Structures are given as structure tokens and as C-alpha cells.
Amino acid sequence: MKKNILLCTALLALAFTAQADDDIIGTARSTGQLNTCMAALNVAGKAAMLKEKGPYTVFAPTDEAFGKLPPGMLQDYLKPENKEKLGKLLTYHILNGAITSEQLTTKKVPTVNGATLDIKVTNKEVMVNDAHVTKADVKASNGVIHVIDKVLLPPSTQ
User: Fold this and answer.
1) Which of 14, 36, 68, 96 is most buried, judged by most C-beta within 10 A?
2) What domains appear along the chain, each with residue ranges and CATH number?
């Protein structure tokens, strides 16, 4: 009987761990190309939001996209005194609701930070402002991730 209880407890713990890893943060980490974005979300204190129920749509810049920022810009954003500024930058990449590529249409959409993104859909190619969606519809338990090739700068930082 004790062995059965221990086995059940271990299986439940494993199940809850697996569920936690399929949220947006866990799913993004598993891609292997969004490490800078995930690290920045942690620094800004926004990773916890993307582990919540949601749903959310995240336009996630690749590590390479962060590398295209002007020299020193990312390092400046990552300073502790710029946590709020970094948070605004990152939440500019997030929409409320899970929106797949099939549901995206050409229009302006509000982001979590209050500014809007300009979505353009032509011949099944999706542009977000001036970034291309390079991989669409990465499903997570609490939303969807669309991988993009450029970091989106909110209107106040452009």
C-alpha cells in the first residue's frame, strides 16, 4: 500500500512538472532559438505572466534577432535600472488571446503594453511591423508562439 501511494505521488509530481513545461515559457525554451528572449523575460519579471493561464500570443524574436539590435542596446535594456523599460519592450511582443496564423489578418492589434502592432498578411506570409514570422503556430498550453526575425521596438523607443 505504501509503495502504491509513493508511486502515485511520484507520477502526479511528474505529470504536474510535464504540464508546467508545456506553457509558453517551457515551449519557447525547448525551441533552442529563443534563449535571449527567455532570459530577458526573466530579467524584466515577465516570465511568470507567460506561465499563467492566458491565453497569450507571443511574437518571439530569435537569438539572432536580438543580435541585430544596435551595439549596446540589449545590454542597456538588461541593466536593473531599466527593468520597466525592458518590460515595456517585451510586452510589446505579446497579445491577449491565442491567435493562430490562420486567424491573423491585416490589421492593427493591441499589445499587452497598450501600443498596437501592424499585422500584414499577404500570400500566407505574415509580417508584424517590419518583422517576418519565420515559424508560426508553436502551440503551448496557454497560448501560441510565432517566431520572428526582428525585435519589435515600441513606438516610444523607435
Assistant:
1) 36
2) 2-153 (2.30.180.10)
